Amino acid sequence: MAYVKWTFLAVLAALVISFLHYTLPQHEVVRINRVFESQVTVGDNAIFWQGPAAGEGEQGNARFVNFLETFTPEGKAVVFRNEDTGWGWPPYFKFDTSNLQAEAGDLTSTKDNPEWVVITHYGWRNEYLSIYPNAISARPVDGPDVTIIPWFNIVFLFGFGVFVLWIWTLVARFKEDRIEPLLDEAGEMIDSVEDRTSSLWRRLFGRR
């Protein structure tokens, strides 16, 4: 039983951590090589794409999406999509896709004369699922070695930890005050039934 309990908790923790890692904002220092628009066909990976932009109607599975082609200081290619989140999830309330595309285009630079930019984004990049992180904002920085402190994530995770601890305390207190007394009563009842059964057995078969 203990294995089942800890396996369930481990799976639950993995799901929560994955959800938070996908949803919370992340920061990447990159050089923007180019910005472009490409038609994509959303299929089984639709959960990792946003719906139509704010003000647009349904467009089916095929639509045009803005992308940012970037490179890290180490030369690794990182491609971001640039989609509105609107009023949906995650709650970034992003409605300025076109503005961000224009700002990113203004920040493009070459490998020989790089201009470093911090892209704030959420989501994952996975080539097999054809999914891309969604860029939220872009701002220039002095160089590739700039230190980015994720203050929002620190505050959010601290508050989330306090909330989880509070829930854990409530559950433990409920278990101690309500569940354990019921289990004790059930155990006492079972012992009483066993004693009565043993006594009846001895009387019926003459064992005293």
UniProtKB/TrEMBL annotation:
The chain crosses the membrane at residues 148-171. The lineage of its organism: Bacteria, Pseudomonadati, Pseudomonadota, Alphaproteobacteria, Rhodobacterales. Keywords: Membrane, Transmembrane, Transmembrane helix. This is Uncharacterized protein DUF1523. It holds the Pfam family DUF1523. It comes from Rhodovulum euryhalinum. It comes from the Bacteria.
